[in-house]
Write a structure and sequence with these properties.
Elements: E1 2-4, H1 7-19, E2 24-29, H2 35-47, E3 50-55, H3 75-84, E4 89-91, H4 95-98, H5 117-120, H6 124-139, E5 143-147, H7 151-163, E6 169-173, H8 193-198, H9 201-216, H10 219-233, E7 237-245, E8 258-267, E9 270-279
Pfam families: Pantoate_ligase (PF02569)
GO molecular function: ligase activity
Pathway: Cofactor biosynthesis; (R)-pantothenate biosynthesis; (R)-pantothenate from (R)-pantoate and beta-alanine: step 1/1
Amino acid sequence: MKVITTIEALTAEILAAKKSEKTIGLVPTMGYLHEGHLTLAQAAREENDVVVMSIFVNPTQFGPSEDFESYPRDLQRDTALAESVGVDIVFAPSVEEMYLHDGGIRICAGKQASILCGASRPGHFDGVLQVVAKLFHLTQPIRAYFGQKDAQQVAIIATMVRDYNFPLEMRVVPIVREEDGLAKSSRNVYLSEVDRQQAPAINEALTLARDSFLENGDAAEAIEKASVHIATRTNGKIDYIELLAYPDLAPVTDETKQVLLAAAVYIGKTRLIDNIIFNVKEGL
């Protein structure tokens, strides 16, 4: 496995792979890898000749009061884990390398970014699209792999891929969970012992809401049941619980076939997100 830190060196590797007619799979990450990331890499390994994993904590998707400086980083640990699941190239650039020039051109994520996580994180998804677009151009993948846990992010990136004709396929891998249902996340390391005991209530709440909605189709009642469950089983603060059509993230109508139930909850000082995507008629 090669660890590359410069765009020039990465470009040379991609050019060589393309000349050899090898397919490239990209796994974009911010590092501090967990089983969810490794599952993405394993899926990429099964479908591509060359697997590229980016490890880059992207400053443009963090707000002024967010945890960019304290976001967990451990490149040595991450490269060992990446190699263990068959990654061929780790691209781990510095901020200066990724953003050497700034001509002022920006990508706007649009109306999909004004709700859910985007409502409390203005500009976040603009930054996500900025770095993802750069990674798509630099690695030229035929397939790119993302986790369902970031469902809003996946929907917004998929819209950019569709609307701007990026020549690649999006692969979305189901959420990887702990045994008690907590979605795996790099931010879980922030949880205290008490926080960790309470955190699985988020997934429990979403499951209750899903079952309620499938039973009677009442979105407000489903969300209320989820809210009560979190309020009675945690000391957490709910940022949002939403039920929307997926992947367009619009209100549910009689024509809706697939639904996203998504939540963001502060457990202690840690903001955790989770979601369930299900078909309206058939359930999961």
